[in-house]
Write the structure tokens for this entry.
Amino acid sequence: MSELLSERALENLRWLVRLWRKGYRSGAAFDLNIDESEDFDSHPDVLALRELEGLGYVDLHFGEVMRACWTLAVDLTDKGMRLVDQEDFADDVPCARFPFP
């Protein structure tokens, strides 16, 4: 991985890779903490995931209902899935933010 990522984007990517490594591979859901932002589009996780999407690591999926529920689904792209097999790519994430799995 040669791109420089924000800390939040890197944490989210590590969590997604961790899920894949543990066998959870069907569109990870991010339930956003509404205390972190006044609106969906400026939420730190949405911004970080859009950063990852722009670099080709993930595909984001959300519609009006998901926006209203402050939720979005994320899938790793082929580029993101290549990180799953890279043993040197760490998948350690803070348990407070990512209690599962």
About this structure: The first strand starts at residue 28 and ends at 31. Residues 32 and 70 are 5 Å apart (CA to CA). Strands lie at 28-31, 58-61, 71-76.
